[in-house]
Write a structure and sequence with these properties.
Helix 1 links the parallel strand 1 and strand 2. The protein has 9 helices and 10 strands. The protein has one domain: Rossmann fold (3-Layer(aba) Sandwich). Helices cover about 40% and strands about 15% of the residues. It has a 6-stranded parallel sheet with strand order 2-1-3-4-5-8, sandwiched between helices. The protein has a two-stranded parallel ribbon with strand order 6-10. A two-stranded antiparallel ribbon has the order 7-9. The radius of gyration is 19 Å and the shape is globular. Helix 1 crosses helix 6. The C terminus is likely disordered. With about 250 residues, the protein is α/β, with parallel strands linked by helices.
Length: about 250
Amino acid sequence: MTTILVTGGTGTLGRPVTARLRADGHEVRVLSRHGEPYAVDLREGGSGLDTALAGVDTVVHCATTPRGGDERSAANLIAAARRAGVRHLAHISIVGVDRVPLGYYRSKLAVERLVVESGLGWTVLRTTQFHDLVVRVLGILAKAPVLVLPAHASDQPVEVAEVADRLAALAVGAPAGRVPDLGGPEVRTVESLARAYLGATGRRRAVVNVPLAGKTYRAFRAGGHLTPGHAVGRGTFEEYLAVRFGDGEGGRRG
């Protein structure tokens, strides 16, 4: 079986990727900033990263943060992977990183370029946003008495377990380059997602759609982050909400 290193292996995607790979019999090392025995800050690199990569055949790069540093982390990882003779670097990215001028998206696109130019065998999978991210954002917005949403905006959330299955399968295969996007099963208005969330959590909020300004909003409004031609995910947002919150009767009120 293959020896695989999963960066960000304790995160939202890294955990199910690790579980899937181990269930298939692979030796998996989990690299994160605080998880022993491979506690490494990728932004700093160092000998700990070389130790984590010793004897590794494949790296699944899930580690990321919107707070900055992804490019430096990727550069350190790639340099160490070259030294270790890694065969395959599988990287997860986001649909629209080349179309939406959001700072985090630009950083993700720069990381993609580093992967492509790494000299390693590589695979890049772009996906739409995970269901849990949509819920986190809506939970923050719903703290106010009125839930204010960007007008004329849509999303295409996908189940993280499906992404984990796809990424794990790609990791154990041959390097495949840029593979087809993986999008959720439905392109939904943000308002419809918000109303589903309110119903599932038992919250009552007035919903107001507000037009915004700027290049990023225009790119989202134009659907730059969507991939309707690759709506291959199966789990719907309502199914995710039902598992997480039940039927809404036990949800939060107020």
